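Journal club side-thread
Mid-discussion, someone asked how the predicted structure for our own chain would compare to the paper's figures. Pasting it here so we can look after the session.
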Amino acid sequence: MANGGPVEHGYPHLETVRAAVTALYKRLSYDTVRTFSASVAPADVAFCDTDDLHLGVQRVAHELVRHYRLPDARMIVSFREMTHAATVELAAGPEYFIELNDRFRTHRRDIGAALAHEVMHVYLHRLDLSFPGTRDNEILTDTAAAYLGAGWLLLDAYREDSASSQKLGYLTPEEFGYVLAKRALVFGEDPSVWFTSPQAYTAYVKGMDRARRDGQQPPLTAAGWAGRRRYARDRRHAQDPRAAPVPPADGPYTFTPEGRGPLRVSFPCPTCHQRIRVPVRGRVRARCGLCRTVLECDT
């Protein structure tokens, strides 16, 4: 939680975020991900100053338990002084103890954001889905919360001006915007209408621009002229038996020979980032086996 300090911007964790989206599809399956087509509604997690603090926080926690489909889980929420925004004790259940920073006693509108992250920890714990290392595991948690419909609360908790700043979660505002945009492109949803923070809206717009660029990389037919030209050059290089191999870091795609068969190219699915491998033979329609996205390619 950044509170008054500098807020990191940009996309420093982008590869981990993309790996988290892939991991969600692999662990949950396409069908389960599709059951999260509706996000948490703002009215369901609204918390005003006149609400009873403890009854209100339990109500919001219950709503997030319902959204994440944890019907037998019970969240016991309390407050105490701490450095972090919140913490959860991951036990066998069905009761899980969540502690919120004392500042949420008076900053109640952000309680839903803090709980969205902590209850997602419980969801991933029950799935036995985690990344090694605290940093990457927290990025997985933020990404999962955003992609499965509750993370817009975390981005909306981001506020920054010349005198102060606040941000919840481990992703940068733009990375939250990126994940929410990836979700919006899949489900046809527009979370921007729920933002109360102007800075959150700006971060979402930037994230959407980055997310759209994922679908505009060669060999996809939506790639721009510069990308297509670079791809054609790299393809000629890969087809030349006398040329040295192109390093994998040269672009998002990688050419590989297939014995005596045609050259093949692999590239990340713009939806779930699972790598797809297709033959190099002109126009090809590919279907991602993980997220079922149909892709038009010009290989």
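Post-session note: Residues 2-213 form one domain.
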